[in-house]
Amino acid sequence: MEIGIEAINAYSASTFISVREIFKGRGLNLDRFNNLMMKRKSVGLPCEDAVTFGVNAVKPIIDQMSNEEKSRIEMVITSSESGIDFGKSISTYIHDYLSLDRSCRLFEVKQACYGGTAALQMALGYIASNVSPGAKVLVVATDVARAAVKGSYAEPSQGEGAVAMLVSDKPEILEVDLGANGMYSFEVMDTCRPLPDIEAGDSDLSLFSYLNCLENSYRNYADKLEEINFDTTFDYLAFHTPFAGLIKGAHRQMMRKFSDKKGRQIDEDFQTRVQPSLNYCVEVGNVYSATLYLSLCSLIDNVEHQGAGRVGLFSYGSGCSSEFYSGVVSDHSQSVLSKMNIRQHLDNRHELSIEEYDDLMDQNTEWLFGIKDKEVNFSKFSTIYEKQFKGKELLVLKAVDNNYHRKYMWS
User: Fold this and answer.
1) What pTM did the predictor assign?
2) Could you give the CA distance from residue 75 to residue 87 in angstroms, rounded to a whole number?
3) Model pLDDT for residues 219-238, shown as the tens digit of each residue
4) Gap between the Cα atoms of 251 and 237, Å rounded
5) Closest to 59 in 3D by CA, of 323, 393, 411
6) Could you give phi then psi for residue 53, rounded to 5 degrees?
7) Is residue 340 within 8 Å of 377, Cβ to Cβ?
8) What residues are annotated to the active site?
């Protein structure tokens, strides 16, 4: 039975700022700029949140489906560390605004940046069980980065957006290797969000945990399977990408431990198997639970040689939980994904100056977790709204009423 991702789409926030502009504006050490390997950081407006990102990522997928196909969506799973309620999940809003069938299971998972993979694996298990032949599951990884500390080196890397995946027995995008999963997890306080406006942690510890989990989740993967070779088993590699510089270092570490290649050969391998997966990540930043799947989108859209190939995927979430698994992209995955026009969406974002960026950051702090009885003041960003949203039928936040119920509208 073939099982995996039938359709996938990524949606980024409507504006961006150059990472170099942040470095200059904050007086950060430009010697560290090249180490990040980041170009742009996506930035949301006050009318954008985890719900709007999720819906706007899913809608192009849903629009291509027949009513009969949509009726087979039996589960909507969201993953996020940007929840809007301690009890009510984002999935309920997404399900409602997409007018999906009410015979549907709705819930949310959370485990930092690993959450998207947890949701995907849960979806795969449901389809593989075949308890409902022909069923589909919608997985939506969506996050908002409003906890960035101004002037920190984490600020330039934090992005906003969502990736939506339709999981079924028709894996047009990625056929997952069922049972080929390596896990490695333990408790560590590398990063956390103890309050809506704080993201705390130890960046050095987080990098160590990431590299430790990559090595050991891969070892667990290889222990379960026969004749696994890091050099030759995978045609491509896609990693959770907090910032692209980390991925270059992680790839180098893995090649030194599990390959005989040296120096230039490692660099060439990086360019061939990994670099295509980074093209979108360096334009958006770390979108937490969606980042690995933004990397997968980038890989499929940007690989030069179309054709079937096995992808090794690594997912990491602070705290921590990690998994190395694999799947096969088909010879038509690229043509299927190209219909989503992800590159066009990224190119059409509005570029911010450092002054506009700071103004938006100040506005966004008014919309932290727990807000109520407040309407979005569109006049504060009217020029951007007119350019990016008006008449485009994108979902935007309109208000939160006195009972904390969030109200949305189509632009």
Assistant:
1) 0.97
2) 18
3) 999 999 999 999 999 999 99
4) 9
5) 393
6) -60, -45
7) no
8) 81, 113, 240
